[in-house]
Amino acid sequence: MSIQSVLSRTASDDYALELTKDFFHEFGEAVLNAAAMLGGPAAHRRCLRLYANIVESAVLSKTLKHELVWLHRLLMLDFVGDPEREETARFVALDLQDPRVEEVCLGADRLFDLLVAIADEHPTCDVVQREIFDLSAA
C-alpha cells in the first residue's frame, strides 16, 4: 500500500462509509423503490432517513450498520411469512414477472457485497459479521 493511498484513506475518515456512499449513489433510487415496494411507506421513510444519515456522516457508525442490515433483511424478504407484517401482504401481491423484482434482487446482491466490504474494513463489527454468517450458513 502506497503512502498516497494511506493518506487518501485517512482523509476520508472511513473507507467503509465511502463504499456505502458509492453504493447509494449507484443503487439509491432502486433501493428506495424496493423498500417502498416490499415494506410500504414506513420502510420507504426509514430507507430515506438511512440515505440522508449516510450522506451527512463522517464515519459509518454502528447505528448505520444496523440500518444497512435491516435494509438487507428487507430486500432478502426476511420479514415475509408473518401474516401480521405488511411485508407479507406486499410480497403476496407482487407479480414475480414484474421487472422491478429483478432490480430488488440485484440491489440485495450488491448490498450483500457492501456488507462483506464493511466487514473487511471493520472486522470487529459483530452487527455486519452476524448478518454475513447468517446468510452464508443458510
Note down, in words, how this protein is organized.
With 138 residues, the protein is mostly helical. It has one domain (3-137). 78% of the residues lie in helices and 0% in strands. The chain is built from six helices and no strands. Helix 5 (99-121) crosses helix 6. The longest helix is centred in the N-terminal third of the chain and has 42 residues, at 15-56. Mean pLDDT is 87; it is low at 1-12.
Brief summary of the model shown:
This protein is an all-alpha fold. The chain has helices spanning 3-11, 15-56, 62-75, 86-93, 99-121, 126-137. Helix 2 packs across helix 3 (62-75), helix 2 crosses helix 4 and helix 2 packs across helix 5 (99-121).
How much helix, percentage-wise, in residues? over 70%
- Termini Cα gap: 35 Å
Order of helices and strands: HHHHHH
Rounded mean pLDDT is: 87
What is the number of E strands?
0
Give unreliable regions as ranges: 1-12
Quaternary organisation of the protein chains: single chain
Counting helices, strands and paired strands, the structural category is: mainly alpha
Keywords:
single chain; 78% helix; mainly alpha; globular; disordered N terminus; 138 residues
List the SSEs and their pairings.
Layout (H helix, E strand, L loop, with lengths): L2 H9 L3 H42 L5 H14 L10 H8 L5 H23 L4 H12 L1
Helix pairs in contact: 2-3, 2-4, 2-5, 3-5, 5-6
